[in-house]
Amino acid sequence: MDPIVFDQIEFNPDTDRFLKKMRIKPDSRQKELVFSLLDEGRQIGRPRAIYSIAGIDQHLEDGVVLNGIRMNSKVMSINLTEVHRVFPYLASSGREVPKATNVRPIAVSLTPKCRAIMTELSTRRSAPSGRPIRPSSR
Question: Residue 15 half-sphere exposure, CB side, CA atoms within 13 Å?
Fold first, then answer.
């Protein structure tokens, strides 16, 4: 399956719900700052996401191999013991937010493994093994 890209995602958070979730009191001094930041985010943010279906090539003791890419994670290995396909995805606020605010993206998006998967999903139609990206028939 070719990766599916979502690049027309509307960012319009409910400000009252956001305040409640962040535990900011409605009469707080921080309320105006939060509203200002949310407005700025609405103007410059451009959320995107990408997902695909990946077959699990191998279940290892300390990880799994997804379409030829080894993922080292004991937790993942345990949680995917009886699973034969997964739906890897990446989501981002878009490049516009870090550029406009001088804030670095969260560290996980900078890891080599994540960068390799993003590149794989967005630029190729086959896994490093050369097989097409599609669900496993197991």
Answer: 14
Q: Write the CB contacts of 9 (distance below 8 Å, at least 6 apart in sequence).
A: 46, 47, 48, 49
Q: What are the tokens at 82? A: 């009886």
Is the whole-model pTM more than 0.85? Answer: no
Residue 33 identity (one-letter amino acid) = L
Amino acid of residue 47: P
In this predicted model, what pLDDT tens digit does every residue of 40-72 receive, in sequence order?
888 887 888 888 888 999 999 999 998 888 989
Domain coordinates in residue numbering, the chain: 4-123
Tokens 């997964």 -> residue: 86
Q: Is 7 helix (H, G, I), strand (E, B) or coil?
A: coil
Quick check: 54 and 87 in contact, CB under 8 A?
yes
19: CB partners within 8 A, 6+ apart: 25, 26, 31, 34
